[in-house]
Write a structure and sequence with these properties.
With 138 residues, the protein is of the alpha+beta class. The chain contains 1 helix and 4 strands.
Length: 138
């Protein structure tokens, strides 16, 4: 029968295995949290892109009307709960001047705003453009 001495490392194997498991567990938890954060950021950016495309579509629709008149309209909420406010108003003539100092007439300001509530957070996005009144008239 042999006696083990104190310098024998067999007693430390269990401790080394437990430390390795703990170290890999902490690293794995950090990786899972980083992946979760990346996925949430991707979803948020995709929703923002959808909002920008929706605003661009509404702005294009309002700005390409044959005849412009002042109005303000709010759409019904869509499947994502987004409401779009479209506002068309005539700009004051003294607001815009050309290089020769002449006031520009029949200029319109078109504003489109999107409102939503996503996971309890209210959001808003806005787009604007100017349009010369007779641009699309025939």
């Amino acid at each position: 029968m042999q006696r083990k001495t104190r310098n024998d490392p067999d007693g430390f194997i269990l401790l080394e295995v437990l430390l390795a498991i703990a170290l890999f567990g902490v690293a794995g938890l950090g990786l899972v949290k980083a992946l979760n954060f990346s996925a949430q950021a991707a979803v948020e950016s995709q929703l923002d892109i959808r909002m920008m495309m929706r605003l661009q579509s509404a702005l294009t629709l309002a700005s390409k009307a044959q005849q412009l008149e002042e109005y303000e309209i709010v759409s019904d909420p869509d499947e994502m709960g987004v409401q779009v406010l479209t506002k068309v108003e005539e700009m004051p003539e003294e607001f815009l001047m050309n290089e020769e100092g002449q006031e520009l007439q029949d200029m319109w300001l078109i504003t489109v705003k999107a409102f939503w509530n996503r996971n309890g957070d209210d959001g808003e996005m806005e787009a604007q453009t100017w349009r010369y009144g007779p641009l699309y008239s025939q």
